[in-house]
Amino acid sequence: MSNKVLVYSRFPKAMLVPIGERFELLDAAGKPLSEVFTADQLSEVTAMVTAGGTPLAAAAMDLMPKLGVIVCYGTGYDGVDLAAAAQRNIAVANSPGANASSVADIAVILMLAATRRLLPADDYVRSGGWSSARPSPMMRPQAGMRGRRIGVYGMGEIGRKIAARVAAFETEVGYFSRSRHDVPYQYLPSLEALADWCSVLMIAVRAGADTHHIVDAGILKRLGAEGYVVNISRGSVIDQPALVAALAGNIIAGAGLDVFEQEPHAPDALTALPNVVLTPHIGGHTLESHTAMQDCVIANLDAFFAGNPLPYLVR
């Protein structure tokens, strides 16, 4: 079997170097396949690598009749039409847990930056407000971490690491997920109950049809005027217009967001708000995470071309 691998999403070249050392890469660079490759070239493709959030529908799969595996670079695979892949006997694999520590770190960074108003404080120093003793309502004392109730929505690998990290700040930790886990944190029976209970809602749930816009105006209202929401999952989990309205209307106190509905575009309505901290989907963007994700991609591709079971098969 040929060791040619089609790269479907747009990736920085440096991320592909370790994979390209083992396989011959056909890089679509995120462009429509029919614009980059001929039908004959696509007809020979048996394996591909994609970013899990990149939409990959049946029509694209049909351009590659010999395609046998879709390997997602990262934990997520929400962009892949799993039903279409299954109908075509195409296996789907990912890199589970490879970036969990880094994503958990950025969740905590966003939580602290939002609750302690780090960005307004930074601006207060840079603008001369501090040195001139200029009054600023954004510099009023805020509640610290000790005694806060942190709600973690989703208790997978990332959710567990977030919970362990925030517990070190002398907080109470509760969670809601599809099933209970053997963890030392309070289980809440629903997302509504979790939002009622906590003052910081950490979203670490897997994206999918069942979680699309599940954090809506009602959940945000339950979180309350002193509540914060932090999202490191996927932008689709939050109803973004409802979030903007909640932030602008002081229905919640603030937010920390690493993901958005239409990346790489954060809406102006969000970027204009002083009570939100925004990062450009960098949760898993560390050297260690990329090495781990590349190792998972290579392991999946090695197994596929050797005719062995995929080590990180999405079931």
Order of helices and strands: EHEHHEHEHEHHEHEEHEHEHEHEH
The number of helical runs is 13
The biggest beta sheet is recorded as: 7 strands, parallel
Contiguous uncertain segments of 5+ residues: none
Determine the N-to-C terminus distance.
Answer: 25 Å
Helix coverage percent: 25-40%
Shape: elongated
Provide the β-strand percentage band. Answer: 15-25%
Helix and strand composition category = alpha/beta
> How many β-strands, per DSSP?
12
Provide a concise account of the structure shown.
The protein has 13 helices and 12 strands. It has about 325 residues and is of the alpha/beta class. The strands form 2 sheets. Strands 8-7-6-9-10-11-12 form a 7-stranded parallel β-sheet, sandwiched between helices.
Description:
The longest helix is centred in the last third of the chain and has 20 residues, at 287-306. The protein is built from 13 helices and twelve strands. Helix content is 35%, strand content 15%. Strand 10, helix 11 and strand 11 (254-257) form a beta-alpha-beta unit. Strands 8-7-6-9-10-11-12 form a seven-stranded parallel β-sheet, sandwiched between helices. Strands 2-1-3-4-5 form a five-stranded parallel β-sheet. The chain has helices at residues 13-20, 33-36, 39-43, 58-62, 82-87, 100-115, 118-126, 157-167, 191-197, 217-223, 240-248, 268-271, 287-306, and strands spanning 4-7, 24-27, 47-51, 69-73, 91-93, 149-153, 172-176, 186-187, 200-203, 228-231, 254-257, 276-278.
